[in-house]
Amino acid sequence: MKSFIENLPKAELHLHIEGTFEPELMFEIAQRNNIDLPFADVEALRKAYDFSRLQDFLDIYYQGMNVLHKEQDFYDLTWAYLKKIHSQNVLHTEIFFDPQGHTERGVAFETALNGIHRALEDGRSQLGISFGLIMCFLRHLDQDDAMKTLEQALPHKDKIIGVGLDSSELGHPPEKFTAVFERAKAEGFHIVAHAGEEGPPEYVKQALDLLKVERIDHGNRALEDTALTQRIADESMALTVCPLSNLKLCVVDDLKNHPIKKMLSAGLKATINSDDPAYFGGYMNENFIALAEAVDLTQVEIATLARNGFEAAFISDDEKYRLTDQLEAYLASV
Ligand SMILES: Nc1ncnc2[nH]cnc12
Ligand SMILES: [Zn+2]
Question: Residue ranges of the Adenosine deaminase domain (predicted)?
Answer without folding.
Answer: 9-329
